[in-house]
């Protein structure tokens, strides 16, 4: 069942903005749906074999009244030979099965004026065609809704394997008449059984979580903010895409701005991550006080060796780096800018003196980044370059006697950031930073770029689901 949940979320992860602006948008093309076709095919094959087909009973006129009751109906084997998966505008997706075959086992209880018999039978179906459409929408809480929108069944051929007394009826009263009765009964029952089974799928899909814990600090809310919209070329969904601090859930002050993914079919999947979503990540970590870094004396001593002439003034020190407000992301074509504001707080104690002094360096800076994403060995690789646009520092201390040294410290910190810290981070980004990719999903030939107000990723995908 988890395979269909992955498939539905994959297809539901697809919308044109109508009501609420999303933080993230995902769009799947027909090329992407063709990729999902094999998953849908395998799923339907397994589900048809698991169908609970109700007992069938009735009467037919075959040279006299023939009463029948067919029980314990089970699809022993079902294979789809030719099929396709397409979008249905304003509905969802449609599976067209042009040719399939099945083996059906059942128990027959027959009464006729010439005979009365009970026995097990085998039906071999072929040239069986179905058109099954699923409607995908959302409920009031943003969970996906799945329902069987329509179903058509057309089984053209059936071979009946009878034994004993029923074989005599088949020979005496006509094989074709009995086949017509069986085809009529099956064509009326298969879609009914699928409709009942789809209710179970709907309950499972509707219960899928719409939030995910990223780490101990933040979680993402990826509920649908609008019902998916389907055209004959693609499907498009709007996802909330808001990050929250786990221990301090606060709605971002700003709402997401509208943005539109291009109408294209070159890749399977298109992902848009808005400026709003990136800023909600930064705000969530800030709200959870995760943007703090403490230094011991030993660590600080190692760090400040890079600050010209400052180490000598800090014989014993401890400190911390903390953000004074959440970083702010701004996205422009081919450029991402991050505005940073923070403080470096140094608490120093000179040799053989009980008193200590605190030095605070307030930093406001702007950094531009050009990033791209690639895939290697089932991991995502983020590469790019950083440029320091501007930096402003202000040094404060309770010890006014050291005011003459503030300018020296300010110069040293600025020099450290400009000539050591930013180049080091730039070099690391150029070499690449790896992050785990989505489980069971591999990005193939991903292309990423920054647009006005959103970051875009175009990619083909492959999957490697583990065996159940």
What does this structure look like?
The chain has helices at residues 2-12, 30-49, 164-173, 175-206, 275-287, 297-304, 403-431; strands spanning 24-29, 56-61, 65-88, 92-112, 115-138, 144-161, 211-213, 218-221, 229-230, 234-239, 242-245, 269-274, 292-295, 317-323, 328-332, 335-348, 357-376, 379-397, 433-436, 441-451, 454-463. Strand 5 and strand 6 form a beta hairpin. The termini are close together. It is built from 7 helices and 21 strands. It is α+β, with helices and mostly antiparallel strands and 468 residues long. The protein has 2 domains: 2-206, Super Roll (Bactericidal permeability-increasing protein, domain 1); 291-437. Helix 1 runs antiparallel to helix 2.
Structure summarized in a few sentences:
The chain has 468 residues and is an alpha+beta fold. The chain contains seven helices and 21 strands. A hairpin with a 3-residue loop joins strand 3 and strand 4 (92-112).
What would the keywords be for this entry?
7 helices; single chain; 2 domains; disordered N terminus; seven-stranded antiparallel sheet; 21 strands; Bactericidal permeability-increasing protein, domain 1; 26% helix; 468 residues; alpha+beta; six-stranded antiparallel sheet
């Amino acid at each position: 069942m988890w395979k269909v949940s992955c498939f539905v979320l994959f297809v539901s992860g697809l919308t044109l903005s109508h009501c609420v602006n999303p933080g993230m948008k995902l769009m799947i093309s027909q090329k992407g749906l063709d990729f999902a076709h094999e998953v849908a095919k395998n799923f339907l094959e397994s589900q048809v074999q698991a169908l609970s087909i109700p007992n069938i009973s009735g009467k037919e006129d075959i040279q006299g009244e023939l009463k029948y009751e067919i029980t314990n109906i089970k699809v022993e084997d079902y294979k789809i030979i030719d099929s396709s998966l397409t979008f249905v505008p304003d509905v969802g997706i449609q599976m067209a099965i042009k040719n399939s075959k099945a083996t059906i086992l059942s128990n027959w209880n027959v009464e006729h004026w010439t005979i009365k018999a009970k026995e097990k039978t085998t039906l071999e179906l072929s040239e069986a065609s179905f058109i099954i459409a699923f409607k995908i929408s959302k409920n009031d809480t943003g969970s996906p809704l799945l329902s069987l929108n329509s179903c058509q069944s057309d089984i053209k051929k059936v071979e009946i394997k009878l034994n004993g007394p029923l074989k005599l009826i088949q020979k005496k009263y006509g094989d074709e008449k009995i086949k017509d009765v069986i085809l009529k009964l099956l064509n009326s029952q298969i879609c009914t059984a699928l409709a009942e089974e789809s209710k179970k799928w709907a309950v499972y899909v509707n219960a899928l979580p719409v939030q995910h814990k990223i780490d101990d600090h933040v979680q993402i809310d990826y509920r649908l903010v609008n019902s998916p919209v389907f055209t004959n070329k693609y499907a498009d969904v709007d996802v909330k895409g808001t990050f929250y601090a786990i221990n301090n859930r606060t709605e971002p002050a700003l709402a997401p701005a509208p943005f539109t993914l291009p109408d294209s079919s070159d890749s399977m999947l298109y992902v848009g991550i808005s400026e709003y979503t990136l800023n909600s990540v930064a705000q969530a970590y800030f709200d959870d006080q995760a943007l703090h870094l403490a230094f011991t004396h030993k660590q600080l001593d190692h760090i400040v060796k890079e600050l010209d002439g400052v180490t000598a003034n800090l014989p014993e020190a401890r400190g911390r780096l903390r953000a004074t407000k959440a970083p702010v992301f701004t996205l422009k074509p081919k450029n991402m800018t991050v505005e940073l504001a923070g403080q470096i707080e140094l608490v120093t104690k000179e040799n053989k003196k009980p008193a200590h002094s605190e030095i605070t360096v307030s930093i406001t800076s702007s950094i531009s980044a050009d990033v791209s994403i690639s895939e290697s060995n089932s991991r995502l690789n983020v590469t790019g370059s950083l440029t320091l646009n501007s930096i402003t520092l202000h040094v404060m201390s309770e010890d006014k006697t050291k005011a003459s040294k503030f300018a020296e410290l300010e110069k040293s910190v600025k020099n450290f950031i400009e000539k050591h810290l930013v180049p080091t981070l730039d070099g690391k980004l150029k070499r690449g930073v790896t992050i785990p990719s989505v489980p069971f999903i591999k990005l193939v030939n991903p292309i990423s770029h920054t647009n006005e107000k959103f970051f875009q990723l175009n990619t083909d995908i492959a999957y490697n689901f583990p065996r159940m």
